[in-house]
Amino acid sequence: MNLSIFDYIIVGSGIAGLYAALLAREVGSVLLLTKGSIEECNTRYAQGGIAAAIGPDDSPALHAEDTLAAGAGLCDPEAVRILTEEGPDRIADLIRFGVPFDTLHGEVALTREAAHRLPRILHAGGDATGEHIELTLSGLARHRNITILEYSLATRLLGDARNVRGVEVLDCRTNQVTAFEGRAVILATGGCGRLYHISTNPEVATGDGVALAFRAGAEVMDMEFFQFHPTALRLPGVPPFLISEAVRGEGGILRNVAGRRFMFDYAPQGELAPRDVVARSIVAEMAKTGADHVLLDVSHLPATVVAARFPRIYGFCLEHGVDMTTTPIPVAPAAHYMMGGIRTNTWGETTLPGLYAAGECACTGVHGANRLASNSLLETLIFGKRIIQRTLEARDGATPRGAPPTPEAEALPARRGAGDAGVPTLPALQRLMWDQVGITRSGASLAEAAATLAAWEGTLPAPTDRASHELANLLLVARLTAEAALIREESRGAHYRTDFPEPNPAWLRHIVFCRYRD
Ligand code: FAD
Ligand code: SIN
After folding, report:
1. Which of 275, 312, 386, 415 is catalytic?
2. Is residue 133 within 8 Å of 250, Cβ to Cβ?
3. What are the Cα distances from residue 424, in Å, to 203, 210, 461?
4. What is the model's pLDDT at position 61?
5. In 3D, which of 345, 79, 316, 309 has the Cα closest to residue 200?
6. How many CA atoms does the CB half-sphere of 182 hold within 13 Å?
7. Parallel, antiparallel, or unpaired for β 152-160 and 121-122?
8. Is any atom of ligand 1 closer than 6 Å to the C-beta of 36?
């Protein structure tokens, strides 16, 4: 093993990793690790945009109210205050870096998405927001003297519970292992959407950061809350391409396969009800009609406006035989976003000193039980910036302390495997999670899933390459998700239990797991 020392080791090259790397490089040496090419990440596929209270009738307080309402009682109000108050400044940072947000009559254009009370979402290239952000930030990172190692998979955190001091890395092309030492290690590894059979996420979203942090002894929180996006394209043989919520924000109507508008049967806000409500309503409507999809109709909107506002979606649908300006788009829900993750305080510090987490892999408390649309890109910037500030304070003498452990955190329950559960494969795992730990769950389905997952974990050989590491990480994250969902005997936000269909005020608290408990 070689050992090189950096001020910052940042794992992940989505918006969270790149933005943190650009700031960190202003104050120290930076190693940026990413397991694929630099552009492979969830960020690149973001469509709708990034939320911030910059409109004339808006304010951080209104943005905070909407965020708290979507979070169904489980947001951390202080984290939400920070997110919404610091949001406009972080957007200004992106503009300074060169992200070309769309404008209208010389002003930044704002669109509306579900559960936002007014238009608040900035976008770029119509529905290509993520691509513009990713290309702008990765282009800058390549020219800022940051050491960037692509195809480099972080496989283990080095150090101990008093100090995380580096990362073990597998070169995905040679399978050679190297160790790097860092004064601060920042996980920015994104989400775990590949847990599920139907997902909007690219292949890199395998929950690696959560698995690495958990194995090292960090606390993880809110794993039962996984968001399903209501509208992904549903066509035989075609990947579940996201059809942005902004399409409904601009007037898109949901109809069942008989052509009837149905959302007002389920929620007074209709198509702009919170995401979890729309996803479950679609599932109910599909069950009623016996179809595997519903229809998203924008044919009443001017064709030129639709094609100009949603060029990527329009182009993708057309390529697959659907002209959305004349024909309703077949859509169905798909796995989309991990609300839970590595527990951090409002400075991005985990419970392990020296270890920080930013972006989708972190659980900062801003999303609670259900993320408000387009708050995730913003969250990556807010807490990425605060991490760098915090590391500077630590360098100036303040003790790097890590977020205080949660008194009630539990060690992940040990569970006996379910007899002969067969060999774990990625498709089998994704099917099990979709069927048993999905949009709706029950105690019986969750208990069975948790037992199968435990049995699978027990049979897994030691990982040797990228695919086997990712499978091991997904299995662990799947079990954290199933166990937390089993413990939470109520329905709240994105977590819906058919055996406990109502929220229970006694459950206005978080489920926190850690591997070790003294
Ligand atoms: P990512 O962008 O996913 O980056 C993670 C990085 O970590 C990748 O580079 C990956 O290769 C790397 N990595 C992972 N594990 C390892 C490892 N072990 N070793 C080395 N590298 C590793 N949010 C919004 O706010 N607005 C939107 O409009 C929006 N639209 C979306 C549309 C789609 C289709 C999807 C999938 C998500 C959308 N989201 C949106 C969510 C948002 O895009 C993500 O939450 C956000 O981009 C996450 O950024 P990140 O930097 O944390 O992770
Ligand atoms: C979308 O464009 O619908 C995705 C927005 C998000 O996930 O925040």
Report:
1. 275
2. no
3. 18, 20, 10
4. 98
5. 316
6. 31
7. unpaired
8. yes
- Report which of 187, 227, 224, 223 is spatially closest to residue 208, judged by C-alpha positions: 187
Pairing of strands 50-51, 121-122: antiparallel
**pLDDT reading at 267 higher than 80:** yes
Identify which ligand lies nearest to the alpha carbon of 153. 1
State the distance from the centre of ligand 2 to the C-alpha of 1, rounded, in angstroms: 42
DSSP result, 470-484: HHHHHHHHHHHHHHH
Structure tokens at 217: 């002894």
Round to whole Å and give the CA distance between 432 and 435: 5
Please tell me the total number of residues recorded for the chain in this structure: 518
The full set of domain ranges for the chain reads: 229-335, 408-513
Closest CA to 337 of 199, 131, 238: 199
Q: Which atom of ligand 2 is nearest to the CA of 243?
A: 3
Q: How far apart are CA 473 and CA 178, in angstroms?
A: 19
Joined tokens for residue 257: 């396969």
**Alpha carbon distance 265, 211 (integer Å):** 41
Residues 33 and 141 sit within 8 Å (Cβ to Cβ): no
Query: Is residue 231 pLDDT above 70, yes or no?
Result: yes
> How far does residue 454's CA lie from ligand 2's centre (Å)?
33
Answer whether residue 137 shows pLDDT above 90: yes
DSSP 256: -
H or E segment to which residue 162 belongs: none
Task: Using the predicted structure, report yes or no on whether residue 403 has a pLDDT greater than 80.
Answer: no
Specify whether 25 is catalytic.
no
How many angstroms separate the CA atoms of 175 and 171, rounded?
A: 5
pTM: 0.97
* Beta bridge partner(s), residue 270: none
Ligand 2 surroundings by CB, under 6 angstroms: 47-48, 244-246, 337, 373-374, 376
Tell me the three state secondary structure of residue 179.
strand
Assign 3-class secondary structure to 295-324. Answer: EEECCCCCHHHHHHHCHHHHHHHHHCCCCC
User: Using the 8-state DSSP alphabet, how is residue 5 labeled?
Assistant: E
Enumerate residues 6+ apart whose C-beta is below 8 A from 462: none
Taking domain 408-513, whether its CATH number is 1.20.58.100 is answered by: yes
For residues 2 and 317, the model is more confident at 317
Alpha carbon distance, N-terminus to C-terminus of the chain: 32
Which architecture characterizes domain 229-335 according to CATH?
A: Alpha-Beta Complex (3.90)
Instruction: Give, in degrees to the nearest 5, the angle at Cα 244 between 93 and 474.
Output: 85
Confidence class for position 398, pLDDT limits 50, 70, 90: low
